[in-house]
What does this fold into?
Amino acid sequence: MKARVKLVDGMMFVGESGSGHAVVMDGAPEYGGRNLGIRPMEMLLIGLGGCTAFDVVQILRKGREDVTDCDVEVTGERAEIDPKIFTSIHIEYRVKGRNLAPAKVERAIELSKEKYCSASIMLGAMATITHNWTVVEDELTC
It folds into this structure.
């Protein structure tokens, strides 16, 4: 896996993944940025959310659960002094589908947290990670 980050202007950078996708990162104006992109530390939370959401949906679908949507909200608290690492992170899952088994959703989240989500396991070495979840029934429409 590989990535490249290049300074564009002021404190704006473009990050490019090894798979050829790009994202703009920028700082807040008080740090010389123009607020035109995601902050790098926000990228970590987005990466965590994406990693665990991918796991949960994949695990549930492999278990033949009819998942139609998965929304993951990640909130992080950072230390007051440098390095301003994440000290706590909370992940809220909202899994939508048809006749989803709550026990299977809970198990998929636990498997992601404990075994499959590299981002969660790495960040969990420094921060306390908590989670909660809800299952929403997807109503059939005709």
